[in-house]
Specification:
Elements (H helix, E strand, L loop, with lengths): L8 E10 L4 E12 L11 H5 L11 E11 L6 E11 L5 E13 L2 E14 L7 E14 L2 E10 L38 E11 L5 E13 L5 E13 L6 E13 L7 E10 L2
Antiparallel strand pairs: 1-2, 2-3, 3-4, 4-5, 5-6, 6-7, 7-8, 8-9, 9-10, 10-11, 11-12, 12-13
Protein name: TonB-dependent receptor-like beta-barrel domain-containing protein
Amino acid sequence: MGIRLLPITYQGVHVKFRASRHLHLYASRVVRYRYVNESRYNAGTIYTTYLPGLAGRTSSGYMSAGLNYERRIPRADELDTKDSVWAWDYYQYARLYLAQTVDSAKLGRATGIVGLQVMDAKKQSGYLGRVDAQVYGAEVGAAYRPFKLVLADDYLPAHPNAFNYGGLATPYNTITDSGPMFSQPITDSTEDFGSGSAYSVHLDYLGIPRLFTQIRFVDLHMRTTPVYSNFREVSLLVSYKLKAVKGLNITNIANYATEYPNRNLPGFFQNRIMLVYTF
């Protein structure tokens, strides 16, 4: 899951249906959105804000549908699975599909973790021209209380005649978040770097009650043209759940990012502290 530093809000309808104890179904229809620095909802996207060729264009929004399945496998008490299947139609931009599974199994006092994900985005003609992108992701890790270590990789094959050289088209996630991709930075978005390889490793510590600590390293070797760029980021995330108010926590994110050849982040450092309420 990505970490949004500031929220983007939407106007639309979202439906969640509990089909069984383990299966949940979702459907959404969004017609307008509001970016972090805008005062009103509008029919644009983040692409119409930042891509010069799309300035002023309106969008019909998007529709999405998906399911999440979580349970302990019958007759395998030590094996848990979390599976997801999703589809998004970004109307004037692309159709995006996702299938993902993250499984864990007890290995003595430790827990082994294995995850796989596949994504596909396509459109022959739209605001971005031809979109043709695939993501093949995998993660492997282990948890041994109070630590958890996970290594992840996402690979996007190149398509020279497609948008961003085979990069994903995500008009409402770009710049601010990398969506469900396993390997994603906080400062930027993996999909904005086009096609190539994205690697990450994160170490979590849960040894103090109500306190979550994570150290994360991300390395992107990707391209939107025939020339690769390299992006690296180191992050420290600390989040504390307040005991007095359920759902309220204080989160601090500090990260340092470098990119070469230089695009727009030469030795960029930031620190954000947030008061977050989950309801």
